[in-house]
């Protein structure tokens, strides 16, 4: 007998798992950056901080004040992780094959859609053709961690895979 989808359970489990996966991704990135060669980023803010500036300018007319920039970027990171987790949680309820590779396929998809597509298209990062191979690998590995932790936590919360 086929299991009935539980969209609200999937959403709640996915959002919670997305927040945990975002924390795991941040921890992975903090450690990985210690091993990577200096990319000479030119002091440009991360895409999450730039996105926070766009939102702040739309809401209050000014960019995020300096003392709050890092926290605003983290808020964007966790907000996106929660939203992506919620989408994944609902999707996995209706299409269990969405969890292929124990979430790593979804991690790769988010890397392709965000890092290689939406973020450069929004002008928050250079185009993929102007980004180093190391940056591509770092981003993909980060999203693999996100996807794997996302599925691990979602399965624990939702109670089935």
Descriptive account of the structure:
The structure is a single chain. With 161 residues, the chain is mostly helical. It contains 5 helices and no strands. Helix 4 (104-121) crosses helix 5. The protein is globular. The two termini are 15 Å apart. 32% of the residues are buried.
Write the layout of secondary structure elements.
Elements: H1 7-35, H2 47-60, H3 69-94, H4 104-121, H5 133-158
Unreliable sequence segments:
none
Please identify the structural class as seen in this structure.
mainly alpha
Shape estimate: globular
N-to-C order of helices and strands? HHHHH
Helix content percent band:
over 70%
Give a quick account of the main beta sheet: strands, pairing sense, barrel closure: none
Backbone CA Rg? 17 Å
What is the overall pLDDT average?
A: 92
Report the portion of residues in β strands. Answer: under 5%
| End-to-end Cα distance | 15 Å
Counting DSSP H or I runs of 4 or more residues, the number of helices is 5
Number of strands: 0
